[in-house]
Write a structure and sequence with these properties.
D-Maltodextrin-Binding Protein, domain 2, 3-stranded mixed β-sheet, 16% strand, 35% helix, 5-stranded mixed β-sheet, alpha/beta, 322 residues, single chain
Length: 322
């Protein structure tokens, strides 16, 4: 699965005005090298070092980047966060030194950057993270701070319709076999991707191959909620899933690639400042699918700024002083 948004902006430098937290003390020491030369997390202070953060240009990434900026600033790092770009431009920015770190999705890294397809990588969140961590270490990129959220593809229905369509992709496939005219809204790329329509047909039910698909320009929450489509494609942390009272059908056979996030840091930067991983790991550990979906909703539904949402959550969870 490629974790992108159809409305992601082209590469740009967009200044974000973020709140600055109070600093705290501590020191970091040079760690012994780990797998691929990536150091173990250690230390709690940046000792005044300057680092730069990038993100993709949608709310979830902006929230994660804002959290990183605030936490590092609170621990004596000087931080710049002005660069936003889509895949693969942001990956290039990391490797060429334009930025020092950004949050990436394991499924995107596996398919877009490392070139693996279904059946060639693990389907568990932890195992997928370990997989990309090992592969990217050889490229001088360190995966740190894994989060337990899973922001992968999904097929959703109205929560009130589970009695009709079932709660799993298997059950919905059986419904499609009996009711082939049922409208299903999807992004165009889902028709041909191995983990899209071909995968649904092969893994669950051939009825998926010939379903009544309606192509939409973005994920299909609005079309499902309005009744235009009985089901549709979503990303599993989309804020509108809760706002529109939808239910994501269970992918019991693990068709959709695991898509947790981790903080990618260039190896030379992490070697110099292993406190980055040490400070961000406990933050990431609290970012479950339900938590990030709730935070996304505050931006996408309630129109709060990513910086304010990030700050409030960090204070609430004890990572920053109020």
């Amino acid at each position: 699965m490629v974790r992108t948004r159809t409305w992601v902006m082209a590469a740009a430098s967009l200044p974000l005005l973020l709140a600055t937290a109070c600093g705290s003390g501590g020191s970091s020491s040079a760690p012994a090298g780990g797998a691929g030369g990536c150091p173990s997390p250690s230390g709690t202070s940046g000792n005044g070092a300057h680092v730069s953060i990038g993100s993709k240009a949608f709310s979830e990434e902006q929230i994660l980047a804002s959290m990183t900026e605030e936490v590092l600033q609170a621990h004596d790092f000087s931080v710049t966060y002005t660069f936003q770009a889509p895949d693969k431009a942001i990956g290039t920015a990391l490797t060429n030194g334009t930025i020092d770190m950004y949050w990436q999705y394991t499924g995107t890294e596996i398919t877009d950057y490392l070139g693996y397809s279904n059946g060639q990588f693990p389907t568990g969140l932890t195992q997928a993270f370990d997989f990309v961590q090992q592969k990217d270490a050889a490229r001088g990129i360190c995966w740190t701070s894994p989060a337990p959220l899973d922001d992968t593809n999904g097929i959703a229905i109205k929560a009130s319709e589970t009695g009709r369509y079932g709660t799993t992709l298997e059950a919905f496939g059986k419904y499609l076999a009996a009711h082939p005219s049922t409208p299903v809204c999807i992004l165009a790329e889902l028709k041909t991707r191995p983990d899209g329509v071909p995968g649904l047909a092969k893994t669950y039910n051939q009825a998926y191959a010939n379903a009544n698909y309606i192509t939409v320009g973005s994920t299909a929450e609005k079309e499902i909620a309005s009744g235009q489509c009985a089901a549709g494609e979503v990303f599993t942390t989309d804020a509108a899933i809760e706002a529109d009272h939808l239910y994501v059908l269970q992918d019991d056979r693990n068709l959709f690639p695991p898509d947790s996030v981790g903080l990618l840091v260039r190896r030379s930067v992490l070697r110099a400042h292993p406190a980055i991983a040490n400070l961000m790991a406990p933050v990431a550990a609290k970012l479950t699918t339900s938590v990030i979906r709730s935070l996304d909703a505050r931006v996408d539904i309630d129109n709060q700024s990513p910086a304010n949402v990030a700050h409030a959550w960090l204070v609430q969870n004890g990572f920053l002083k109020g």
